Structures are given as C-alpha cells and as structure tokens.
Amino acid sequence: MRHLLSTEGLDLATATSLLDTADTLKQTLLGREVRKLPTLRGRTVVTLFYENSTRTRVSFEVAGKWMSADVINVSASSSSVGKGESLRDTALTLAAAGADCVIIRHPASGAAHRLAGWLDEAGTHVVNAGDGMHEHPTQALLDAATLRERLGELAGRRIAIVGDLLHSRVARSNVHLLRTLGAEVVLVAPPTLVPTGAQHWGVEVRHELDPELPKLDAVMMLRVQAERMHGAFFPSAREYSVAYGLNQARLDKLPEHAVVLHPGPMLRGMEIAPAVADSPRAAITQQVRNGVHVRMAVLYHLLAGEEIAA
Ligand code: NCD
What we know:
- There is one protein chain.
- The chain is of the alpha/beta class.
- The protein has 2 domains: 140 residues, Rossmann fold; 147 residues, Aspartate/ornithine carbamoyltransferase (Rossmann fold, 3-Layer(aba) Sandwich).
- It has 10 helices and 9 strands.
- The strands form 2 sheets. The chain has a 5-stranded parallel sheet with strand order 7-6-5-8-9, with helices on one face. A 4-stranded parallel sheet has the order 2-1-3-4, with helices on both faces.
- The longest helix has 20 residues.
- The chain starts with 11 loop residues before the first helix and ends in a 7-residue tail after the last helix.
- The C terminus is likely disordered.
C-alpha cells in the first residue's frame, strides 16, 4: 500500500490486515504504563488540515506519537495557505522539508488523490483524512474495528447508515468497506439526502427508519452537515428529528445486541437523542479509542516493514 485514499478498491486482504494490525497494536499497548513503540522513530508525519477537526486530527497525532514518529500539525488558517499558496506548492514544500507522510483533510472531493499524484515522485505517502463529500477511509476502518469488537465477523451482518448520506464521506467510505467485509448495507434517508446513483452501490435504499430497526445488527447515525447544504433538504430540524432521529423509543425497537455508531461530532437532539448517545449500546467513545489504533495501523502499513517492532 503506497497511499490510503479511499476504501473503494481496498481489497479484503488489505482491509482485514489493517484491522488485524490495529487489534494487535491495541493489545500490545493495553495496560502499558508508557504507550510508546519505537516503530516509526525517525519518520516525519505531517497533518495538513484545511477543515475543522477534533477527533481525526488528534487521533492521527496521538497515533504517530505512540509510534515515536515526529508529528507536525499544519492548519490552513495558520500556514502560507492564508497567503494564497496553492495546495500543490504547499504539498511540495512539506515533502521538501522532509515529510514521509502527509495526512490531508480538504473540502474538495479528490484533493487527496491530487496530492498523491504530486507527491509520488518525492516518495511521500498520503492519507486521506476526509476529502469533501467523497471519502474518509480511516473513519470507515475505525467503524469496522468497533463493529468487529462488538459483533464479531461482519459477513452477513445487517448495518443501516442513517441520515445525511448526500454530504457524507463517512457514508461512502463505510458503504465500500462494509460491503467488502461482506455486510449487508441499508441506507436510510429522505429522498433529498440520498446521493444519485446510490441504487447502484450494492445497497438497499429506504426512506423510513422504523420498519428497518428490528432487523439491524448496527445503526450508524450521520450528522446533518449544514455547512455543505446550499438549499433546503428537509422542512425543519424538528421534522427531520421526528422522522430520522434515533430516540429512546427507536433504540428499544433494535435487537438487544445491536450497536449504535456515530462518527461525531454529534448534534444531540437532532439525529441522536442524548439518552441514546450516552447509552451502553452506543459505541461512540469506543470508536474514538479505536481510531487511534486504526491510524497507527495505517501509518505502520505505509511507513514500516511487515513486522511489528513492539
Ligand atoms: C466526520 C467528517 O469530518 O467527515 N467526522 C469525523 O471525521 N469524525 C463526520 C462529520 O463531520 O459529520
């Protein structure tokens, strides 16, 4: 693996190997007083974020630091991007300054692919940490890691992704990865928030949440991404919440073993009720914890050899 740009095209063997490595790293660090492996000593990892982020940026930084890499955070607002520098020049600057890996979040779909094209020659690896409405592969991997912990193997499991599918890179990455792992995926959203062509993704598309609930092994709620909406996609926040919000009554309709996921940031009271978000059936903080190990696994696969130097 040279770059991690998408889960579309990520084959089963590579995906499984990343998830297994994340699990091994988690077990290796468990109960250790000092959470530090020497694996990436001498490697330089740069996070280049053109959009806001809490979880993703912090967990990439923690992942790099726990593997002894030097991690440098660049945000568009405090870099020369604010002076008008192009993405290409910024990327080439980072590579020339010694970056072995650039982790990029950008509002334009396809930005990570462009970056990978420019940095190939320099031998710098690229990880997509979310590009516009396209993909967010490490989010899908950490979701899969969490589901595997809660449910075991995912083949044959039925998983719903609910809400603002249209603007969600998390949904796209999850559809591809979950299908590769053999899960059945059902997308639930109002017709205005279903991307065109979703019918051809090998998933079921539904517009009503309630009839789906009793059949699910997991439900993944998505944030309504108002910052990407230019127009009215539903009548009001209250109507959206009544039709698609995961409240206590809906939680009670899920099978006992079913897991609730949310990539964060959550809009409590909109797509998810506070009581549901805080219930033991929600895996939201477990997702964040697994995000560190999954990102360690990705950096390890890109930057280190095949053996884990524990
Ligand atoms: C997501 C993102 O940025 O795509 N958040 C995340 O990375 N955990 C989802 C969102 O912003 O709603």
